[in-house]
Amino acid sequence: MELIYPEFYDRFAAFLRSLEGRRVVVISHARPDGDCIGSQVALTRVLRALNIDVICANPDPVPRRIQFAVGDTPLVNFDGLPEGDLTAIYVDCADQGRAGEKLKARFPAPFANIDHHLSNIGFAQHNFIDVGSAATAEILAGLFLDHHLPIDAQAAQSLYAGIATDTGQFRFNSTSRRTFLIVAELMARGAQPAAAAAELYERETAGKLDLLQRFLASLSYECAGRVCIGTLPNGIYAATGTSPEDVEGLVDYARSIEGVEIGVLIEEQGTAIKASLRSKDPVYRVDRIAAAFNGGGHACAAGLNLRDVTMADFRSRLVAAIDTQISAVDTLKKSTL
Amino acid sequence: MELIYPEFYDRFAAFLRSLEGRRVVVISHARPDGDCIGSQVALTRVLRALNIDVICANPDPVPRRIQFAVGDTPLVNFDGLPEGDLTAIYVDCADQGRAGEKLKARFPAPFANIDHHLSNIGFAQHNFIDVGSAATAEILAGLFLDHHLPIDAQAAQSLYAGIATDTGQFRFNSTSRRTFLIVAELMARGAQPAAAAAELYERETAGKLDLLQRFLASLSYECAGRVCIGTLPNGIYAATGTSPEDVEGLVDYARSIEGVEIGVLIEEQGTAIKASLRSKDPVYRVDRIAAAFNGGGHACAAGLNLRDVTMADFRSRLVAAIDTQISAVDTLKKSTL
After folding, report:
1. Closest-CA distance of chain A to residue B297, Å
2. Quick one: DSSP state of residue B261?
3. Which domains does chain A have, with CATH numbers?
4. For a Cys-Cys bond, which of A24, A152, A209, A259 suits A54, CB 3.0-4.6 Å?
């Protein structure tokens, strides 16, 4: 088989050799997702199989739906970290701050940084960053395969979990031919897509569906149907027995409608507002719309937080900002015809 | 590369030779889905590239979301079939009746039958049936690759559409290592998963989301939370601007809840009732529950139609039948411990 990441081959081999005799901690970002946990767990397991002393650490608990990606892998929070000298490897973190200030303070000079985020500036001694990969788990799987490292069934399933979630079940643009080839190799080592799907998508709570129902009932349209906005009012978590974790994915329903270019979710949080924006086409640069409210993100996915503002006031200001952006894009499109 | 379907290799070569000089029609089932249309289109395009005179025919129109899988491929309904002698190839049809009585009457002796359904009894002269394949499109893609047939970009995308939809985006148990390897090959020939996903999942109507919202609001639980039932009352299509096609996928929400073993959708149709049952585990044999109401299907997915019954009356009879089945399974599980 051809090398999957030839550009990393020699450097990764040297990196592996440099880990010998060290005590290692594999760190990833707060509010962990499938790629974060899957990458931490898989790297930890593979390094353990190489007789390296390693655990993983995450500032936040693992969401219920992703727990299958952990198995019996040692995973601690900050307080569970052992004393003494530890070598820190960051995975799936665009910057060190994403794993929280406590971990950043304890590990001011990270040893390694493996990631696929565009904004990663390479903050460690050894950096393996490939923005063309659909997931950090895709990079790790490719490196493990290139170096014929032992991937056990749990590691294979964890890597699969990372790839499946970060590609939206192979729906996002980042899904490449390499993605499918790597998954085929992971299946040969014990990954089970159907079992992963049962954990990821068939363990909803009744409250989550209630939350979805209320969000759908709130949908309204702006900008001649090109924008769809759904809202979550104060008290909705208590009313549905849900938590902020359950908001994940809701905004995609707003965007999924034919003719809608930008989907929006606005959440009341006391006297503050949190909003998520998703566009179908990067031309709408929702990160720029969010930036007008001190938010940020990517061209197709951005978010913002504002204090001391009412839902009604914020909603009208946001619609005005989106309308301006859509008009600018329309004008640009016309002028380039 | 190793052969994907070695058991079919010689027979498929002979079948291709036997098509020379014939006028062919590729037929698939009524109420077409992605695998049906994807398979018809891809086989038609590949045979055309071999200079065979071929069109596809389907008794029903292609749903809006699947139209991208057709492209410029000639596809007609029964009335659009040319006169004269035609050789009929059925794809993705468990039996000939699934494509409707008109086509069955015109083609009483089908020439070929390519399918992955367990219940297919091989009704044609040439039968290529593999129940271990996730989709008929998977079988066709494998046969085309094995025989180095020319798969153009539209055929690759059509085959991808069939595989992606029939595996529920690679979530069903049928998804195998072969599935991923074949998709990688299709991507090398022009398949674009993200573009397919935009057509399949980002072209919802506002009415469809309204229908989903009302279905979610109707969810209720039976059998100590192990059964979740949602209902669609008379008049809901008119109220939401939707059609029966939009019901697809709703029942999966009822099943997706943690602790729910069987999800149910009951639809009022005047004085008749249509119901769909989905279980997480085949042990519940929802086909047997459906059979008690003259319905049928598979162990995890079944349906039924009943005339002259009210929603309330049917609902209580169905719950009783499900309760009996669940109790029987519980007893069986206990006795085998």
Report:
1. 21
2. -
3. 6-201 (3.90.1640.10), 206-335 (3.10.310.30)
4. A24
